[in-house]
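Reopening this one. Same input as before:
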Amino acid sequence: MTGGIACGKSVVARLLAEKGCVLFYADREAHDLMRPGRPAWKAVVARFGPAVLRPDRSIDRSRLGPLVFSDPAARRFLDKLVHPLVRAEQEKAVRRLERAGGAPIFVVEAALTIEAGYARHFDRVVVVDCRKPEQVRRLRLRDGIGRAEALRRIGTQMPAREKRKHADYVIDASGSLAGTVEQTERIYAQLVRDAELRGQT
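Same output, byte for byte:
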């Protein structure tokens, strides 16, 4: 499951988890990989310097974020560093799940699935989208930033229309929560059918 920043992925992920899907949150895993002593921490500090650290030596994402969003080279560096590590952790999670007896649906919630070239590794791609004015409003509210900064951050990501081209299913989370719930339930039912058909082949 993927989609643009502040489009509603977290809401849909929570709804799918409530349905019994097993969720792997790529962004959370990326955060964990950058804790002191974890694989990405040293590389990030070497690239961006001690200014991105808090007093406890953890990486301050409120400082790192603006550096990455304003510098395409820095963003490429971070993506090249973190994406393979997150992918490796995802594979470990799948193997653990298989050893435990599996689950009907394993969902990876990752903002950059398509951009990173990983969409082909999944049976289905669900894109969560919303109208741009609503996306800007949510991002400003969430991160406490101005309109110009919100638009700049949105502009660093693949346009929604391009993401939709890679989607098997699309959830438009622009409207009410009830509308998002209804769409998610419908797509969940379809994913269950897809899984059942796959199991018969």
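So the earlier flakiness isn't reproducible anymore. For the record, The two ends are 24 Å apart (CA to CA).
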